[in-house]
Every structure is written in structure tokens, then in C-alpha cells.
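for the recovery benchmark. C-alpha cells below, seq after
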């Protein structure tokens, strides 16, 4: 029978990773002669959720096995339990893993409902009780706790996508610092850009591909062509022997969070703002106050080019801002800017006029009463207006330090045709042939 499986929340701050768990689960199914004809999907959900670990990712995949739904659930449940107990230690760190399983025929019947659930999971906060009710009403087999929310959401992802290749470390290296030859990353970047994205921070001269936690991931490569990602992996020189790699189809770099907007806390929103004032805070953050909204906009120093743009804006400019709604210290809403489009620049400035005779600055007679030269008494009705040059232009601006879901402005999402079944089977064949399958054995025993 053919099934769709979703898993989530198998990481922790100590160890483990949901993508790592799903890869081992796929390996286990592959060893049981299950047919896997598509790449697994790595689905990033609402990036503003405050209780997420790292990237808030869940995984789904399609599998065709000669077993029943109950047998598949038992396999997924047992593997999940062993992984969380032996690998991630998630139960001790308030992680709440979950899974969702659906027969493929039923999946096709409720596909629209699943897509709506995914859309909400990308853009809002879904309570656990609501997810359980959704699963019950649609006969989705679920297990675990909070992770079942992301598991169900991953089943509904069927939008535009990119690819990510993730490499994994051997268990003896999980607590060691990651070390990679930076020149090899820059070499790969120079060969394959712009079909690969966010490899290296040339401003700070450091790699962007490396994972930073104590999880099993060594590095991740993002792009629009999986064959190019494999070529890139073969150029990059990791200073340790890696365990295996997996390639995922993903909603990363496609802007899904900007498609489903809201006005509540932890949602993403988008609005036009006519600027009233700009405040540059100590440390470099910029606060923008607009006339169309009571919500303050904050542009963090760390957003670099976006922050530099914000410092150049002034009263009267018209902008379109997209970003996350967060609570401030007094529980009012602030908008953390992710992207700013400059729609209109106020390049006019009003000045107290010069006396045409004395060439001295005139003085105000009173509010709205005009201006007069103190020396010769020449009168003028109003201020003079003159054009000023601006250091910015109309157009779209965003930080070069992308969030997972954010689409780089330059990225072309058109992709080559690939044989996914051949690709995933090649990857899984290499996984099961590697000599050291220690972690896989831990989860299987």
C-alpha cells in the first residue's frame, strides 16, 4: 500500500534533528523493500513561532510498502521512540515529537484540506487540540504530542520548491566544532552561483552553510538543482569524515510566509507606511514610525543593507514593509522588518526663505503669517522649496542574511527536470552500504 508520512519535533538543544531522524526512517523502510519514488519534503513552518528550535522544520515523504497501515504506524512509532530516547534525548528537554500517517488514496481525497492546514501552519499558530480534531475528522493516523501539528502540515505542502542537500556527521563528532575549508566553499560558490544560495558571508569572511548546534548536521547546501548541489558537495572539503547525505525538496527560499498574511502576534504582515519619523537607536537599530499604522517598525542592525537603507529614509517617504509581528515590552505590536520596498522618496525640503535683497535668512512673523527680513523688512508668504539628492533609490531591499523561507531577490525558481526516484534510491543505496551504520543500528535495535 502507498502512504504519506509526516514527522516533526525530533530535535533538541542537546542532539538530534528531524531531518536526520527522517533519513534514518527512510533508510529503515528502504531496507524493508519499500518503494520510495520521490525525494522527501523539508517543510519550514511559521518562522515567528517563539518556542521553535532552530528552523521549525517538519518532514513528509511518500512510501509504498507491502504492509498494513497499523504495521507502518508501529514501525514509525518504535523508530521515533528509540530516536528520541537514544539520540536526541528530547523527552528530557521538553521536546514533544509526533507523526502523522495517511493512506495515499485518502490523501488525494482531502488534499485541499491538508493544503489549507499547511497554509495556516506557515502563517499562524495552530493549537494542539485543533490539530488533533483535524486529524480525527479526516481519519489521519497520528501519534505523539505537539510535533503532530507540523507532521500534518508537512502532508499539505504542495507549492513551489527549491532543494537542500544536508550532510550528517558521525556520532563521535557531534560535540566537536565543525571545520571546513573556506576556500573550497568560495570556489564552489564562484562556479555554481546563482543556482546555489547563501553559501558564504563575504562581509564577515565566514561560511553560512555550517550548522551551529550540537545536532548531527554538518552543513546544508541550498539551490534549485539537486545535481549541482551534489557537485558542490564534492568540491567542499569538510575536515572530518561525514556519515551520509540526504536531499530534500523544500519550501525554503520561496516566500510562502509572505503569501498568507495576518495581523496577530507571530504572524507575518505587509503594509504601506508613509514615514513620520526615523529614530536611530543606540547600537544601530532603526525605529520607523508611520502615519498609516500605530505599529512601530524596527529594522535591526544585523540586517545590514536593510538597516543601512532605513537610516537613509526620512519624513514623507512612502514604503511597503513586510515582516513579523512581535510583542514589545509594553505588549504593543511591533513589526520586525524583513523586506522594504521604497515606493516614493520625498526629495523636497522646505526652508525659511532668503531675503532677495539682503541675501540673509528671513525670520517668521508668526505661525502661518509669513516671513520678513529683519534688516530691510521685505516680506515673503511661505517657505521656499528645493530639491535634495538622496543616497537611496526606489526599489526592493532586504537583508543578505536570509531566513529559511525568504526568497533572495535575484533567485530564479525555474528548475530542471529530474528523476526523483532514481536520485533518492541512489542516496539510500549509499546509506545502507556505508560500513559504519552505528546510529541507524541504535535506532533499529
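predicted aa per position
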Amino acid at each position: 500500500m502507498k502512504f504519506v508520512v509526516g514527522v516533526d519535533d525530533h530535535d533538541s538543544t542537546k542532539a538530534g534533528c528531524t531531518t536526520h531522524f527522517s533519513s534514518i526512517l527512510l533508510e529503515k523502510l528502504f531496507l524493508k523493500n519499500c518503494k520510495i519514488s520521490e525525494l522527501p519534503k523539508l517543510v519550514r513552518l511559521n518562522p515567528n513561532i517563539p518556542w521553535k528550535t532552530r528552523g521549525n522544520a517538519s518532514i513528509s515523504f511518500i512510501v509504498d510498502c507491502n504492509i498494513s497501515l497499523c504495521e507502518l504506524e508501529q514501525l514509525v512509532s518504535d523508530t521515533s521512540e528509540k530516536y528520541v530516547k537514544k539520540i536526541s534525548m528530547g523527552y528530557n528537554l521538553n521536546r514533544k515529537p509526533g507523526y502523522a500517517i495517511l493512506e495515499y488514496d485518502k490523501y488525494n481525497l482531502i488534499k485541499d484540506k491538508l493544503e489549507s492546514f499547511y497554509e495556516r501552519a506557515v502563517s499562524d499558530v495552530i493549537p494542539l487540540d485543533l490539530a488533533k480534531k483535524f486529524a480525527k475528522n479526516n481519519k489521519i493516523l497520528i501519534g505523539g504530542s505537539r510535533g503532530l501539528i507540523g507532521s500534518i502540515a508537512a502532508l499539505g505542502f504542495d507549492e513551489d520548491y527549491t532543494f537542500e542537500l544536508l550532510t550528517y556527521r558521525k556520532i563521535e563528532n557531534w560535540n566537536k566544532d565543525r571545520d571546513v575549508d573556506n576556500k573550497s566553499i568560495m570556489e564552489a560558490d564562484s562556479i555554481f552561483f546563482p543556482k546555489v544560495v547563501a553559501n558564504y558571508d563575504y562581509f564577515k569572511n565566514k561560511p553560512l552553510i555550517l550548522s551551529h548546534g550540537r545536532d548531527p548536521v554538518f552543513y546544508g547546501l541550498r539551490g534549485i538543482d539537486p545535481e549541482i548541489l551534489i557537485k558542490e558537495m564534492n568540491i567542499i572539503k569538510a575536515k572530518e569524515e561525514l556519515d551520509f547525505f540526504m536531499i530534500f525538496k523544500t519550501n525554503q527560499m520561496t516566500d510562502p510566509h509572505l503569501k498568507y498574511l495576518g495581523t496577530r502576534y507571530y504572524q507575518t504582515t505587509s503594509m504601506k507606511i508613509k514615514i513620520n519619523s526615523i529614530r536611530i537607536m543606540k547600537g544601530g537599530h532603526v525605529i520607523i514610525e508611520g502615519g498609516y499604522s500605530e505599529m512601530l517598525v524596527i529594522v535591526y542592525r544585523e540586517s545590514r543593507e536593510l538597516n543601512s537603507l532605513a537610516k537613509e529614509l526620512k519624513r514623507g517617504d512612502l514604503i511597503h514593509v513586510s515582516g513579523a509581528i512581535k510583542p514589545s515590552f509594553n505588549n504593543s505590536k511591533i513589526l520586525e522588518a524583513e523586506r522594504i520596498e521604497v515606493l516614493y522618496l520625498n526629495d523636497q525640503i522646505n526652508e525659511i526663505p532668503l531675503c532677495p535683497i539682503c541675501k540673509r535668512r528671513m525670520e517668521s512673523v508668526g505661525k502661518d503669517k509669513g516671513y520678513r527680513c529683519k534688516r530691510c523688512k521685505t516680506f515673503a508668504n511661505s517657505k521656499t522649496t528645493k530639491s535634495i539628492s538622496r543616497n537611496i533609490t526606489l526599489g526592493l531591499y532586504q537583508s543578505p542574511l536570509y531566513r529559511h523561507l525568504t526568497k533572495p531577490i535575484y533567485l530564479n525558481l525555474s528548475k530542471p527536470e529530474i528523476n526523483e526516484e532514481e536520485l533518492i534510491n541512489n542516496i539510500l543505496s549509499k546509506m545502507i552500504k556505508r560500513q559504519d551504520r552505528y546510529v541507524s543500528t541504535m535506532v533499529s535495535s
